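Hey Z.,

So I finally got round to the S-adenosylmethionine thing we talked about over coffee. Here's the setup:
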Amino acid sequence: MRVAPETSTAARLRALAALAALKILSRAAWGRLRFKGLRVVVPRGCFAPIFVSTALLSDAAAALAKGGLAVEVGAGCGPLALSLARSRGVEVVGTDVDVRCLRASLANAKLNKLDALYHPVACAEASCLRSGAFDYALANPPYLPLDQRLSLPACGGASLEVYRRMLADAARVLKQGGILLFTASTLTGRVEGAALLGERWALFDRVRAYAWRKPSGPSPSRPRGTRAAGSPA
Ligand SMILES: C[S@@+](CC[C@H](N)C(=O)[O-])C[C@H]1O[C@@H](n2cnc3c(N)ncnc32)[C@H](O)[C@@H]1O
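And the result:
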């Protein structure tokens, strides 16, 4: 699998406009919200499940996953992980670098009586988890190709370096034959080697959900154009 960032000036301007809109909407979208029948408390500044990407990936995951163990890389305050735990009985480990949002994910798991199935752990990407452990990996990463200092939840790095690290590490912790489900948008760039599962319009772009299956065999590859934490480029 390969993700090539969108580098044109027009695309960068559209990404900046999308980021501005996201920031305006995020200012209003916090506190007590509902997502797919779950009660979700979103602290100010955490990514709220009002955007297309979370619902799109949640629907894709619910259609594909059947039991087993999943990881969500970049779980935020947990709506995606918790919706999968509830709809499919999947046990989910959620990682995030934002400890405040991750704490809210645990509170949300308790609020929805899903804490037996949800285990948050704070670390970058999936660096705290061992390789080859999970049946499914989910990632709704920051996918705008902009410097992450502009927004932790929305910007995946000017060269998508954070976005690509998150996907590569999600792939590392998958079992052979495990499935990585992830999002990108038309502003992210070109995704090759993954199956397109669905697409929805947002304000400035089309958001897409993809699936990639980790090859079975003695030396599984990692997604091309992505980079596992600590591995050579
Ligand atoms: C687009 S939000 C998605 C949140 C949640 N999964 C959802 O769909 O509502 C991306 C999340 O990735 C987290 N994140 C950003 N960089 C990260 C990294 N290097 N490792 C792990 N999580 C990261 C952000 O803090 C944010 O919670």
